[in-house]
Amino acid sequence: MSIRNMTDGRQFAGRACAWRVSMLAIAAFAIWVPGHSQESAPYYEGKTVTVYVGRTPGSGADLAARVFARFWSDYIPGEPTIVVRNLPGGGGTRVWNYGAEVAAADGLHVLFSPTNGAAAVLQEPGLRADFSTMPFVGGLLSPNMAYVRTDRVERPEDLLTADGLRFGGQNPALRFDLLGRLALDALGAEYRYITGFQGAADVFNAVRRGEVDIQVASLGLYRFSIEPTLVAEGLAIPLWHNPSADTAGNVTPLEVAADIPSYMDFYRQVTGTEPSGEFYELYKWILPRVNNIVYAALLPPGTPQAQVNVLRDSFVQVTLDPEYQAEEETMYGFSLPLIGAEEGTEILNSLYDVPADIAAFLAAYVDEVR
Predict the structure, then answer these.
(1) Where are the domains positioned within the chain?
(2) pTM of the prediction?
(3) How far is CA 232 from CA 37, 166, 227, 229, 325, in A?
(4) Contact between 51 and 81 (Cβ < 8 Å)
């Protein structure tokens, strides 16, 4: 081959090499430039998420879950379809047992229902699910408060000297009843516990008829039914609200109930001393475990962490949505405080780390009125 031909060959090879380099650079640029991402579609795109509620259709828990679900899809990448399915039964335990034993751990099955921390602490045989093994997505605290008829207690201070008070409840292990009894016992109030009412509305109607004198009720029921009737008519007065607490015993009054003293403030007001004693220590210990996580979203054990993280992030985003908050205002008169993943996980784990003396006391405390 002549030198000229060799030179032409080298020039052609050089131009071809330069062309290939240019094409590779353009391809790399196309991959890098926003809008040309080759990433796969989000996991939830085109999928259906089923949210299970352990209460009957039309109940407060059912309404809370369905309203939340309406907004949730908007914040999950891929915007899956979300359907709500009711699994009532077993005193609210059926849905948790289903989640622990039957539901697939694929991030497409979410248990969203009132938890029953007391059942876990008391190791009730009907609850087979172990909450500490189920990833906690997010929770909502549903505040509650105590009130009393004024024909029995005109001023808060009179609670300590009133005779024959009747505290109406539904179930000795229910948070309303358990917290109410412990609070009254810590104050040294004289009362009789009357249980077996089918629901909070039934207790409220019994108060209206004068059959019982005291009720611990949700703040929503108080705002919409009790306050505008009994309180506005001078037939009842609020006593205290049960505040938020952590597992270390730190207590935080609720801003949404700022017009009603926290139980700790009420105790100081009527006794002139700091809260103390065995019943108070039990009240403070049980408070976060039965009261902080009311409406909780959990996943079946073994759900992949990637799906857990997506659902946790989107859960928080829903609670910050102004339209969702407006829905809460319509339903409750306020926004339900958020219980984040870290706090909720810590509380659920603590349900299975119960000191022996506390477990024995609570078991006897509940059994004595069953």
Answers:
(1) 48-141+293-355, 144-290
(2) 0.86
(3) 62, 22, 6, 5, 27
(4) no
Contacts of 225 (CB under 8 A, 6+ apart): 201, 204
Beta strands 144-149; 236-241: pairing state: antiparallel
Question: Rounded to an integer, what distance in angstroms lies between the CA atom of residue 173 and that of residue 367?
Answer: 9
Q: Does domain 48-141+293-355 have CATH number 3.40.190.150?
A: yes
CATH of domain 144-290: 3.40.190.10
The mean pLDDT value for 353-366 works out to 95
The whole-angstrom separation of Cα 20 and Cα 304 is 42
124: left (phi over 0), alpha (psi -120 to 50) or beta: beta
Closest CA to 80 of 114, 41, 52, 53: 41
Q: Using one digit for the tens of pLDDT, what is the confidence trace for 123-144?
A: 999 999 999 999 999 999 999 9
Each residue of 251-287: pLDDT tens digit?
999 999 999 999 999 999 999 999 999 999 999 999 9
Residue 62 has pLDDT above 90, yes or no: yes
Taking the C-alpha atoms of residue 341 and residue 313, their distance in angstroms, rounded to an integer, is 9
Both tokens of residue 221?
């029921």
Over residues 174-213, the pLDDT tens digits come to 999 999 999 999 999 999 999 999 999 999 999 999 999 9
Q: What residues contact 206, with CB distance under 8 A and at least 6 apart?
A: 168, 197, 212
Domains 48-141+293-355 and 144-290 share a fold: yes
Largest CA distance in the chain: 122
Amino acid, res. 192? R
